[in-house]
Amino acid sequence: MTRPELLVRLRALAVHRFGPRAAGLSDDQDLFDVLGIDSLAALDLLTDLEVAFSVEIPDWEVQGATTLAGLADVLGRRL
Amino acid sequence: MSLAFTGEALSWALEQGVLEVSLHRAPCNELGVAALAELELLVPCLTHPDVRALLLFSRLDSGFSAGADLRALHAGLGAEGWVDGVRAFLDRIHAVFDALDQAGIPTFAAVHRVVFGGGLELMLTCDVVVADPSARFCLPELRLGIIPGFGAIPRLTRDLAGPVVRDLLLTGRSLGARRAYEAGLVAHLASPGKSLDLARSLARQAAKFPVAATAAAKLLAKPLPRAALDREKDLFCALVVRPEVTAALGRFVADASTRPYLP
User: Fold this and answer.
1) Tell me, what's the ipTM?
2) Residue A57: helix, strand or coil by DSSP?
3) What is the dihedral of CA A21, A23, A24, A30, to 10 degrees?
4) pLDDT one-digit tens code per residue, A1-47
5) CA of A77 to nearest chain B CA: how many angstroms apart?
6) Tell me, what CATH number does B192's domain have?
7) CATH of the domain at A52
8) Could you tell me if A2 lies within 8 Å of chain B, comparing CB atoms?
9) Which of B28, B177, B260 shows the shortest C-beta gap to A42?
10) Which residue of A has its CA nearest to B132?
11) Total domain count for chain A?
12) Which residues does chain A have within 8 Å of residue B172's beta carbon, measured at their own beta carbons?
């Protein structure tokens, strides 16, 4: 999967989890600030990523990524 | 003893022979003194003749339980007799968890979202666990310089293969529901939002069986790892006084961010 494809899928996941306001996210906007993600929502996001991409990701890798671009980097290393 | 109870942290009622016990203390069913006191009231119900099975679940959207009340643990730091108080708390919660673990009736849990630390340890006392796909299981204690103190390691090593146990413990990572199901940590992976329905169906079926047969089966299938449980309390108390634990608990309590706590 290419990085642009990853970003498209990540944005779709974010919209599914956090609603339409996630659709306008730029790749480098802070997910926590823009979407108001808290630690609980970050766990849900981790579950979403693992299910959607059939991959296991250690918590700290996802929790340390605060943007869609950061998440794409994490997934890019795992896929 | 009452088979209908409404408390601050948990409540229960008897439904078709199944004692349905719900956790409901915000933000996420932290296990502290209040929850422990009410769990102690629950224990005598386990041997009431009308109670043929038990079902444990959370009414909170946030999850099953985030585990021990670390803010309460931190609040007592440095006070005279603090370690003795920790030991007394551990003795009490072990007594309750052991009673749940060894109950002669079948016990079920339905879990979702946060199943962390002491919450996972509470889950491990149950015979059969049904997970929602949202559930995540984690033992984060080593991040704080301590080990799980409510029986996790003895019960996990009783029930699961060593590699999975060591992964959970030594990395502090969380497992998603699918992975937990594949590893045998939970018996069922329900459809989204259906874990309580499924667990209730299982409990009501199991409640029909003669209690003597259930108790005999559990005696063989689920022995209490007594020596390891006692050793765990000793090791926990030896660790909890170390300065790195004090520092880690202080950082955890001072962290007001809503972002995930990453030591």
Assistant:
1) 0.90
2) coil
3) 80
4) 899 999 999 999 999 999 998 888 899 999 888 888 888 888 999 99
5) 18
6) 3.90.226.10
7) 1.10.1200.10
8) no
9) B260
10) A47
11) 1
12) 59
